[in-house]
């Protein structure tokens, strides 16, 4: 019997090669012949698409050292620009709103929690990013060396859900902003579709187009945010004080700090995906510091803007009315007084969220391939199309109420990332500091660890996170049962 053509883990065919079957097999079965013809046709279509200029055909296959791009100052700068440009976006600005509006924190408390939480989250992501050039493997493939082939599939699945959820929220917020800019003449639905299409095109083509897009997309975005600072800054209330007794205040400070830590930290599950083409000799410290700098500066800027807007909501009736409509309406209202130019800035801010959505969609598609050989048999660009459709459908279906549901769900989902990072750090520092890994054996189940200890640690950590959750989260379910 001929080997399965859809089993690339066993080395029969790579995903981008035209599919072929032996002529004897075709002659033996009419049904098999028809199936083979379809597979050959699909293989030719895939080969033609992956032959497009600038198209990245590679999926999760390791990038060997001889196929990496040469080191350059531009490549080093791209590390910083990638994270800075992707995260100076309105969706991250909404995190800052939680300090004053949800946790009842004052301006100073909110700023301190945001800055310190952000730094810790960015540092952990910077640590995971350095494994990209070192290994030439995607993040969830790297995790196989620390957690084992089978246990690593659990965080891989969680990461797919996390990335899809985040991008869904991004589409909703973008649609809200574009709708608010148009005064309601453009519906949120149209805005969501516009952003989804642009995200899909860039994510399908892969790293080359993605890096090119990120290299320039941040420029109008940062200018629009500077305009927002000048326009809305006078309405920020820096005298806003925290509310609640000492115990409540301590809990709220810790909760907001954790939230500001978690959001940049969520990129850790995809951090090395974008550096697999960097030379193997690239300095780990350089990748860490450039990633940390790009993330920290971008997140700090939008966090502080979000905190400022939230402080103004408490004292500015126009902002409060806009916030009652949507987060996007609040951001547009903050440009009030600039007439048409303010609307232009609102559009730029809305489209800036695309830069934050592309890497999430890209990494989710890679994650599907990591789950197993059948996922790997389907080209990355096909999974990208499929995932974008899911994100679009979820955003359209939940544009009115899914924002709150996903916000609660993703907050719970985020705990597993830090558990994953702790496992990686322990394995790296305590057991592999001197020995290292043979990164070329990323599919060798005999070489990769069994991962029983890592799986137990992961599940225990997850259980501890659930037990430590805010009780009000459970009370929602109790009230619903009543």
Automatic annotation (TrEMBL):
Cited Pfam families: Transp_cyt_pur
Subcellular location: Membrane
GO MF assignments: transmembrane transporter activity
InterPro entries: Pur-cyt_permease, Pur-cyt_permease_Fcy2/21/22
Keywords associated with the record: Membrane, Phosphoprotein, Transmembrane, Transmembrane helix, Transport
GO cellular component: fungal-type vacuole membrane; plasma membrane
UniProt similarity note: Belongs to the purine-cytosine permease (2.A.39) family.
Protein name (database record): Permease for cytosine/purines, uracil, thiamine, allantoin-domain-containing protein
The organism's taxonomic lineage, starting at the top: Eukaryota, Fungi, Dikarya, Ascomycota, Pezizomycotina
Bilayer-spanning residue ranges: 80-103, 110-132, 152-173, 185-210, 216-234, 246-267, 287-310, 347-368, 380-397, 403-426, 447-473
This protein's record includes keyword Transmembrane helix: yes
Superkingdom of the organism of origin: Eukaryota
Membrane topology summary: Multi-pass membrane protein
Keyword Transmembrane: yes
Record-level GO BP terms: nucleobase transport
